[in-house]
Amino acid sequence: MTVDNSNVSPTAASDLASLLDQLRGADLTAALDQIDGTDLQRLAQDINTPNELRLLLEASGGDDELIQRFLAKAGADAMLDRVFTLMQTRFITDRLGSDSGTVEWHITTPEGEKVHHLTIGDGRAEGGNGPADRARVTLTMSAPDLLRLCAGTLEAVAAFMNGKIKLSGDMMFGARLPSLFDTSS
């Protein structure tokens, strides 16, 4: 089944869920070819919750290649910037206590490796592009796995044990990271 471009444009859709409903069951590869990259960037910017990110991943059927194609068309930077901005809003301050640290993320994308960092402590999480001045933990993973992790559909410990996530630095701090972010809705 192919999708008529006029039916899938995010600017014509009333919201993200409506657009994803239109894509569900469609030939997503063909749909991605029809949708303008700037529309996909807008779609990425409309993601405000882990549940909305889950909807996007469900539309791909969990296929890493389709997720990578989406990222290539939308621009990996746009999607990663959105994900790291959302992380800052999903930080659960009371779970960290007085501990703090900076996490450096190395994300493999269709455009090459992207590096972001997130400093958590003092009741907030703040991040940016590029390497950290001083990372307590460094995580390395693919962009699809980062999206799954942030959507709450990838179990971090299992992903680490299976080699999908590589961790260097303070292992104890790294092990606490999944519990510090709300991926419930």
UniProtKB/TrEMBL annotation:
Stated name of the protein: SCP2 domain-containing protein
The species this protein was found in: Actinomadura miaoliensis
SCP2 domain ranges (all copies): 100-182
